[in-house]
Amino acid sequence: MINDNSIDCSRRDALRKLSVIAVSVAMVSTSGCSKLLLGGGKVLFGDPKIEAEFTKMTKVDLSKGDKTVLVVCSTPESVDAENSSLRMDIIDGVTHRMKLHGVKIINPNRVADWLESRDSSVPDLQKLAQDFDTDYIAWIEFQTFSVQEPNSQNLLRGQASGYIRVSRVEDFSGQRRAMMAYNREFAMTYPEHQPVSETGRSAIVFHKEYLARLCDLLAERFYNHRPGKSI
Length: 231
Fold this sequence. Notes:
The radius of gyration is 28 Å and the shape is globular. The termini are far apart. It has helices at 4-45, 53-58, 77-82, 86-100, 108-116, 125-131, 203-219, and strands at 68-74, 104-105, 136-148, 155-172, 175-190, 196-197. A hairpin with a 2-residue loop joins strand 4 and strand 5 (175-190). The chain is α/β, with parallel strands linked by helices.
């Protein structure tokens, strides 16, 4: 004979199990909705932007306000001998990207004329501060730059390294002076994992793609940007 106490215990056990199942389903549903909402947000708005490294270090957002930047580039003689247009390619590429992202820049053609009028491969920052009405001077100094994979005649892989030095221009008793505000290294390998064969991609096309990625890397130090493509 089954007593009432046994029936009540069975019912309580069953109710407890149903409660556990209901909570589990709710948690899974909530998690699934959260992921769906996050995924939908990324589709609608894209990945969140990364704060510019320059802004992190100086607390200055160059894409807002009226601060003007002059971009200059220098290369060692060994690099300049094989890539004579590199300096202007970098200046043009970096200033173009900065301008697209709201940064006020000094016309790179004016900078090119100024550089051509001087023999020194290293820009005189103090002279630049006096000759240009700019708030910041961004000096991209290459230490190394290559396109060919070492010890190979038909494999291509870009290697570049150097420094990005930014000086803030201030007025001291009527004299404009360049004061260091930002100094960081940069390094890039393209493509990162393995070189590409010159037979599969011409050296001219590869060089163009490599410079574009390099200018992205350098310019993104100065404005907020989406996570970059894998290189």
